[in-house]
Amino acid sequence: MNDIKSALDARFGEQTCKEQVTRDAMPTFWVPQEKLVTVLQYLKSDLTQPYRMLYDLTAIDERAYKRPQNGHIPFDFTVVYHLFSFGSNAFLRLKVGLRGEYPSMPSITHIWPAANWYEREVFDMFGIRFDGHPLLKRILMPSTWEGHPLRKEHPARATEMGPFKLFDEKVDREQEALQFRPEEWGLKLESEDSDFMFLNIGPQHPGTHGVLRIILQLKGEDIVDAVPDIGFHHRGAEKMGVRQSWHTYIPYTDRIDYLGGVMNNLAYLLSVEKLAGIEVPLRAQVIRVMLCEFFRIASHLVWYGTFAQDVGQLSPVFYMFTDRERVFEIIEAICGGRMHPNWFRIGGVAQDLPNGWDKLVREFVRYFPPKLREYDKMVMQNALFKARTVGIGIYTLEEAIEWGVTGPGLRACGLEWDMRKMRPYSGYENFAFEVPVANNGDCYDRARVRVDEMRQSLRIIEQCLEHMPAGDFKSHHPLATPPVKQYTMHDIETLIHHFLNVSWGPVIPAGEAMSCIEATKGWNGYYLTSDGNTSPYRVRVRTPSFPHMQMVPYISRSYTVADLLSILGGMDYVLADIDR
Amino acid sequence: MSTGHYWLVIGGVLFVILNTAAGLIWLERRMLALWQDRYGPNRAGPFGLFIVLADTIKLFFKEDWIPPFADKVVFVFAPAVVVASVLLSFTIIPFAPNVVVADFNVGVLFFLAMSSMGVYSIVLGGWASNNKYALLGAMRGASQMISYEVFMGLSLMGVVILSGSFNLSEIVAAQKNGWYILPQCVGFFIFLIAGIAETHRLPFDIPEAESELVAGFHSEYSGMKFGMIFIGEYMGITLISSMVVTLYFGGWLGPAFLPPVIWFVLKTFVFIMLFILLRASMPRPRYDQLMEYGWKILFPLSLVNLLITAAIKLLI
Fold first, then answer.
1. How many C-beta atoms lie closer than 10 Å to residue A44's C-beta?
2. Helix or strand (DSSP H, E) at B7
3. Which candidate from B37, B133, B283 shows the least CB-CB separation from A312?
């Protein structure tokens, strides 16, 4: 932390970058707007351990924040940059304060191409303009939307918006907005020798796995350019966060990467627990890890089957869904829910493990490995499957980092980087497992990494099974919600906490914290800001699928339509994880 | 042959073929389900057999929609082509001694001519739909079928050389002392692969490639027009299977404890099942890979097969 501070001071002068201390102890600096571009350029390329990845870019509407901020006059908006350095295994947070109703600031798309969509999202959600951005238009909201949803004055509930009426003029306006004009997307209509064909893949298409639209500019069947159009699955998860209590937001997280189930809970809760300063008991940690790994297997099985189906293999998806059903049986026995069990709680988990859980888990641990071998023969070793995936959609490690690719997509480029190993959370440092890697960075290697990951997840589950520690399943910290009940009738202190946490919900101390976990699809993080209230001041959900989808045009150019489906299938995205 | 017998054969063939094609709807769904760890249609009637009836009724009563942007005449005409050409092909197939609609002495050529007609339905249907997915599917279909046509014809010539006839009944009769699967096994494999490509079934379902092109060349078809394409595909499977049986597996020939027609049907069903099994197990290659495979491997192979067969025939 001091290294980066002294490096910044030495380069830009003592007073340029002001340090801020945050609850998550991440190095955080306020950078003046006019210095931002040079500071970022310096951090990206001139440091000995450069911050090569733009992990996240978002903003906060500070106008309702009633607390003193680091000694300066309160800003109206703050734009927050999260960078990551693989060399020093460290995050860095930069903040730029802005004043004015609809401020503008310089774009950094020329430094990181990945900033493109993030800046569009900030514009869409806050109305902050980025000068020099190549195509600054709405990304998640419809182009006809009025207002910018994450601004504090924008209503959060339908009841605040007045009754909905669909007048004829509105119908016409919406219809007009749906007209496709290639120029608006920056696409040329023709090249020197031929006209292009524009093919609209989605939003309803069997190959897109959800409501995703990709506009293809084709020459024959070769892709000249592709433009993903996202936002069809946008449900305002971040806006909902600020009107839910800290506790009641947990079910919403389940539905963000809806194949990842409780793993989303974990990403959110790690952040909340950092803010509240809660230590989670060991047993609760191990239970969490076990369920997360079950969900990793379940998610990868869905991906495995649908990927095979995308390249035309009809049967594997049925076998894999059957196996996923076995995973769900265990999850159901433990959590009561299946895809969205909403089972982790602030400070632990909802209940202790049920009697006989170990029998179910042991059965699965025995059952699954032969199945995986069978699938290897069926899918991974299939010559036609290889013909469709080897050498398709290649990106290098450099490009992956540049575009913010994380998770299996990053490891398929040869970098052995798993957050569970490199920045362990929830007790992952206590488990023995390997990090599968592959070297070519094509669709096949991404698939291989995921298949091998399922085996490692099984290893972790086995260790949870053999070494499940005794102890509490929830912390005794006063902010743990709902509080442990055994003492409530014995002393007034716990009774009060119980009453408050159940009626209002917990009051989490002011501050900010970010988590980052190795979710099923890549790094998932929740950046939470609290103003010391019963609900968050700002919830930022950084999902892995968003930057991955942003990269699709870059890696699919000059391939064919059929290859695009391999690329999409091999990427393993979930629309709710992109649109939130 | 008396006129009565003649009409009986025509009626019988038509009846059996149409019903087989319809029954294949049920068979395929049940077999796929069996191989995919599920039940498949098992509610309507015994073993779910009435699904065929239900499907037919559904197809007849669905709105038969012609898109306003389509070329109407061609759009209506295209599905008829596929059914007509496949049905016509069945006229030359000898199901048993004397059970053949038209005992042409150019039967093999007639079959090739008719199967080439089938491509018209894909191209015209895809073009007339005026839909980009359909267009891509039609283009893929056209190039796939035209190229696979070439070595389908070449692979058949081995059989023609051995039997010395284009007449299918004579070809079957010539297999009395041994089926052509042994001397012509290379030809058989090429013919089978080309046949799968002709019927555009997985792994050669590139013209309709669901995960890429939604439904490819027939994206815009609905109701009974879709039904014709659908039934046409199943008839195509039956046709290729019976051609394989006729040319390489001795047609109706078999031990005397069963009548010749039964032998023919049994053998044909083995190949129909093979088609279904293929669908359950294979991924789909990319379109250019398929072309490469055809022109760089199958085409030379079928030429070599033809040359060697001819040389052996000359020497013996």
1. 19
2. helix B3-35
3. B283
Pair of tokens at residue A564: 């695009």
Residue pair A426/A270 in contact by the 8 Å Cβ criterion:
yes
Summarize pLDDT for A37-47 with one digit per residue, the tens.
Answer: 888 888 888 78
The structure tokens listed for A516 are 């980052």
- Where are chain A's structural domains? 2-151, 237-579
Tokens of A563: 């290859």
Q: Shortest Cα distance from A311 to chain B (angstroms)?
A: 6
For the residues A199-228, what does the mean pLDDT come to?
Answer: 85
Residues from chain B contacting residue A200 (CB–CB below 8 Å): 132
Name the residue among A15, A12, A18, A71 with its Cα closest to residue A42. A12
Confidence of residue A2 (pLDDT cuts 50, 70, 90): low
Beta-carbon contacts of residue A105 (< 8 Å; ≥ 6 apart): A33, A36, A79, A96, A98, A128, A129, A130, A131
- Which chain A residue has the Cα nearest residue B219? A205
Contacting residues of A for B38, CB less than 8 Å apart: 318
CATH fit for domain A2-151, picks 1.10.15.40, 3.40.50.300, 3.30.460.80, 3.40.190.10:
3.30.460.80
Among candidate residues A437, A394, A439, the one with its CA nearest the CA of residue A417: A437
Report chain B residues whose CB lies below 8 A from the CB of A565.
211-212
Question: With contacts defined as CB-CB under 8 Å, which chain A residues touch B280?
Answer: 314-315
Q: What is the mean pLDDT of residues B28-38?
A: 88
Q: Is the pLDDT of residue B1 over 60?
A: no
B133 touches chain A (CB under 8 A): yes
Burial of A251 (0-12, 13-18, 19+ CB in 10 A): middle
Q: Which residue has the tokens 């937001």?
A: A249
Q: pLDDT above 90 covers what percent of chain B?
A: 1
Ordered alpha helix ranges (H), B36-167: 51-61, 72-89, 107-129, 132-163
Distance (Å) from the alpha carbon of A444 to chain B's nearest alpha carbon: 14
Average pLDDT over residues B5-27: 84
Identify the CATH assignment for A237-579 out of 3.50.50.60, 3.40.1650.10, 1.10.645.10, 1.20.120.140. Answer: 1.10.645.10
User: H or E stretch including A540?
Assistant: strand A538-542
Single-letter amino acid, residue A237: A
User: Per-residue pLDDT for A30 more than 70?
Assistant: yes
Rounded to the nearest integer, the mean pLDDT of chain B is 84
Output the pLDDT for position A68. 66
Provide the b/e sequence for A319-333 (b: ≥16 CB within 10 Å). bbbebbebbbebbee
**Chain A contact for B296 (CB, 8 A cutoff):** no
Residues of A within 8 A of B279 (CB-CB) are 314
Phi and psi (nearest 5°) for A573?
-115, 165
Q: How far apart are CA B200 and CA B219, in angstroms?
A: 15
B residues 29-58 near A, CB within 8 Å? 32, 35-38
Residue B297 is classified by DSSP as: I
Distance to chain B for A326, nearest Cα, Å: 14
What pLDDT is attached to residue A1? 52
What is the band of A303 on the pLDDT scale with cuts at 50, 70, 90? Answer: very high
Say yes or no to pLDDT of A71 above 70: no
CB A317 within 8 A of CB A306: yes
Instruction: Return the axis-axis angle of helices B107-129 and B72-89, rounded to nearest 10°.
Output: 160
- CA triplet A176, A182, A187: central angle to 5 degrees? 155
Span B243-251, average pLDDT:
86
Q: What is the largest CA-CA distance in chain B?
A: 63
Which residue, among A476, A460, A265, A472, has the nearest Cα to A352 in the 3D structure? A472
Each residue's pLDDT tens digit, A434-480: 999 988 888 899 999 999 999 999 999 999 888 888 888 888 887 88
B198, with CB counted inside 10 A (0-12, 13-18, 19+), is buried
